[in-house]
Amino acid sequence: xxxxxxxxxxxxxxxxxxxxxxxxxxxxxxxxxxxxxxxxxxxxxxxxxxxxxxxxxxxxxxxxxxxxxxxxxxx
Length: 75
What we know:
With 75 residues, the protein is mainly alpha-helical. The chain has helices spanning 2-37, 63-73.
């Protein structure tokens, strides 16, 4: 009878520990989600930022140069 009670007690401890860790993890993820939900990634840059976008002029380079650029930069 004593070993059965000990087994139930250990099982209850593991269940409570698992449930507590699961709840802690869930609320941690919810806290991180709330922090990043209001984070605006696409705001206009501040300071001395410049726009770095442009088109590639096909007439400037040959097919070989474009292939080398592909292998070097992974474009």
